[in-house]
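User: I've been trying to design a sequence by hand for this structure and keep getting stuck. Would you show me what you'd pick, starting by listing the structure so we're on the same page?

Assistant: Good idea, let's start from the same input. This is the structure you sent:
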């Protein structure tokens, strides 16, 4: 009985030791696999980073090569420009001594010029307000007229009054119609209240050739239409003739295409241009 117990004890111990060793081996194997996987993943990541850096360096190298090529191409031009600039500076140093002194004096007076600039800006703002008031007055007296027949606008500080020839003249005529005289009377009423304003009356035609009697072409027709309007303003509405200029622009200043009837109708117009008061502006510029 005792030998059997000993044998059983030895067998149990061996079996237990075998089970423990197998579990430990599996655990070690899993641990080793985990370390291997981690090392492999990190190696792949580092390899990819190296590839990305290599590609970036390759692109930078290519960009630098292109930049170097471009600079090499520009270098002769820059050398030539530098040579020309040096020559110009040499020439200036010979002839501009008095000019340099004048520039120095101008720089010394910059403080005084600031006040002058402020006055100039104030004068320009005042002029713009008067221009806006003039436009509002014109639109007020002409408010009941079709916008297609008369248009008032401001461009670059200049007031333009465009009146269609459909309103002013019969077809092929330069005689002002009676309804148009009433319109011109309303315009004259505003202009008479601004005695310092001078203006130009421009005749415009379409591109269709015109010839009749003493009128040889569209130049003649445009001038005759302008002078017809000027005469109405002078003799019927007592605008001083010294304030007016009559001009013909023929077919060459268009507002639409002459390829359509609508475009040609838009181009046939008489334009009143309120001339800027340049003499007063120049006096302001000449102030010291």
């Amino acid at each position: 009985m005792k030998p059997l117990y000993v044998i059983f004890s030895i067998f149990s111990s061996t079996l237990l030791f075998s089970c423990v060793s197998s579990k430990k081996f599996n655990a070690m194997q899993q641990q080793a696999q985990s370390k291997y996987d981690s090392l492999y993943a990190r190696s792949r990541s580092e390899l990819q980073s190296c590839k990305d850096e290599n590609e970036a360096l390759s692109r930078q190298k290519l960009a630098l090569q292109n930049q170097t090529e471009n600079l090499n191409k520009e270098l002769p031009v820059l050398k030539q420009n530098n040579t020309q600039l040096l020559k110009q500076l040499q020439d200036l140093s010979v002839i501009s001594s008095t000019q340099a002194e004048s520039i120095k004096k101008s720089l010394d007076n910059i403080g005084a010029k600031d006040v002058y600039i402020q006055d100039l800006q104030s004068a320009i703002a005042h002029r713009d307000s008067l221009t806006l008031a003039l436009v509002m007055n014109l639109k007020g007296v002409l408010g009941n007229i079709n916008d297609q027949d008369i248009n008032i606008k401001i461009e670059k500080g200049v007031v333009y009054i465009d009146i269609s020839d459909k309103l002013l003249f019969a077809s092929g005529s330069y005689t002002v119609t009676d309804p148009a005289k009433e319109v011109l009377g309303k315009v004259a009423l505003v202009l008479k209240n601004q005695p310092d304003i001078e203006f130009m009356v421009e005749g415009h035609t379409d591109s269709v050739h015109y010839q009749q009697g003493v009128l040889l072409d569209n130049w003649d027709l445009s001038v005759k239409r302008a002078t017809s309007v000027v005469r109405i303003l002078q003799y019927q509405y007592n605008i001083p003739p010294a304030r007016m200029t009559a001009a013909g622009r023929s077919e060459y200043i268009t507002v639409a295409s002459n390829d359509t009837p609508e475009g040609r109708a838009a181009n046939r117009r008489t334009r009143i241009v309120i001339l800027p008061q340049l003499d007063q502006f120049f006096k302001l510029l000449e102030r010291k």
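That's my pick for every position. To get oriented when you compare it with your attempt: Residues 2-95 form the longest helix (94 residues). Residues 123-286 form a domain with the 60s Ribosomal Protein L30; Chain: A; fold (CATH 3.30.1330.60).
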